[in-house]
Amino acid sequence: MRYYPVFLDLADQPCTVIGDGKFAAEKAAGLREAGALVRVIESGDYTPGDLQGARLVVDASEDPEINRQTWKEAEEAGILINVVDRPAQCRFIAPAIVRRDPLLIAISTSGESPFLASALRARLERWLGSEWGPFTALVGRIRRELRERGVPIAEQTRVYRRLISSDVRKLLRAGQFDNAVARAAILARPNVESSGQVALVGAGPGDPDLITVKARELLADADVVLHDALIAPSTLELCGPHATLESVGKRGGSESAEQEAITARMIELARAGRVVVRLKGGDPFVFGRGGEELRDLLAAGVDVIVVPGVTSALAAGESIGVPVTLRGVASSVAITTAQGPASMSRLRDLAAASDTLVVMMARTNLTEVAAAIASVVGRDRPAALVSKATWPDQRSVEGPVSDIARIADRAGIDAPATLIVGDVVSALTVSGLQLATG
Question: Taking the model in full, what pTM does it have?
């Protein structure tokens, strides 16, 4: 790493900017915002010796000869200098800055791409709301109070973690400053008995880019993440470095955690004051047993929140360009599974009642499932089977519902897979609009 990142205290310090264009004006304004005493020298007015006494210099003259002279003078005097757009003549580089005073985030690409640094700044500015400024100041005030009382570092850290995962920022965002301060004061009491929380979070169908912003925040702040077996490793990488990850996924044909044991574990952790994320594939309330967990957690007196996710029941079709509803083709959709003793009877009833039928977890007994559906809608009804929707190794096949199992076997399509049956499967193909997939 060539550059060592620092923040300079330039309050009341003499700084010099050379130039008379847009860059010079921007650099001078930024230095003044930091409290510096700024002297601006127009390009034609610079003479060697003008940098004497300066703490920091920005040469925005865009004149190679002036650049050479200011660099030589600054180097000989030991003054920090930045010659704009001349990396070899810079003892410091100015980062792109996100300001949420007193929070300050500097972004640098080590001079490789100022545009990229600016683009990242724009993203962070959208992500970090205005509440982060007063929240940072509030945490700073609490930190000073804890240090004055001699609270041990370990307990201070626990306080900060309670604050970051609390609703204080939400209160500040809503303009409820007094309520936020009062809430923070309660959380800042050393050795306070902090009640835990469980978040039932949908991880979406697989691609971590499809997870919600709320889910990302909860994963970043969680103490413990209890996750399904089929959560993508790249999604688990969104968890904070201090989080404990526990796999509690249930998969057919494999040793799995019992639902009662999973719920008991969540209750145990919450009562111990932990912030818990129960991370489920798709949406927690679509064949994810989230409703059962919510019921049992509430009955145990646990604070619970639910964060929806993109269900694979819809994402599977969308990932190959197949909508489950389409004007003039399908105005109703039924979602079910191929599991359970009554599943075949249920499949036939739903196939008769809906324009599009989506069958989740359909791969294991696909031959039987397809035959049951074909007996109602006909052998030639279009069907698609999508395996690992939105994952890098996603695969899919299409064909008449009566042949879909044979086609899937021949192609080596693996579980988990979602079956879609209905005229929507071929509607866009006929019109030439089918989405190309890998």
Answer: 0.79
